[in-house]
Design brief:
Shape: globular
Number of strands: 0
Oligomer: single chain
CATH topology of the largest domain: MetI-like fold
Number of helices: 14
Helix content: over 70%
Number of domains: 2
Order of helices and strands: HHHHHHHHHHHHHH
CATH class of the largest domain: Mainly Alpha
Strand content: under 5%
Radius of gyration: 24 Å
Structural class: mainly alpha
CATH superfamily of the largest domain: MetI-like
Length: 273
Amino acid sequence: MVALTSAAGVAPAPRRHRVRVWRGLVLGIAAAYFLIPLYAGLRFSFQDDAGHWSLYALRAIPSQIGFTGAFWLSIKLAFTTLVGTLVLMVPTTIYVHLHLPRVRRLLEFVTVLPIVIPPIVLILGVLRAAPIWLKASPYLLSLMYVILTMPFVYRSLDAGISAIDLKTLVEASRSLGANGPQTLWRVILPNLRAGILSASVLTLALVLGEFTMASLDLWTTLPVWIYQFQQTDGHIATMVSMLSLIGTWVLITVMVSLDRSESRRSRRKAEVA
């Protein structure tokens, strides 16, 4: 009977139960690691100096000096960085995969450098070498943010391209009479939607939370404003930090949901066809 039970596959059940228990324990610890500080920050931001619950910090945010300018500056830097990163990295990654496969290792090494070199070293070197007209513009930060996001963007795009048969798609598109831009826009980019979305999410998250370069370049982005205003009113600064964090999560969730819904529509169309 024991042999039959083991052969029938009933014996491994306790092992599966143990795996589920450990998985739940790990997920619980991870959830506590992220949610407890978030709860503490929200609780502090919704309290006044006397410890009573209050919406004062939430209502007072729009009227604070410098908040609107810092917020819109961060949004503009995030948008310009995202556009610049995709325009630079998407064609470069595709071209390397198609025509220069031997250069992939060199490109991987180059894109790792922004992680190895501290941001403070990068911005100080750029501030010494950049012309005056560029240093007077906040969009110098966008150029630096493009460099900072290269490791994450390249790996997202590289994984997306590696998941498809790029050469076959390009050859099939050309055989049907499509030129280079048409192949890129109608064939390659739709198949790279997941990789581009992942790269966009990482870019936005990095730009909206970057502090070191903006502070050394003397531009008041939202993270710099939070740090400066924290000395004036800790409740309002904490509230802005929590809203920024939650807003970033919501943005990422919306982008991922749109990608999933688009994938489902494509599958349904393929099934109908």
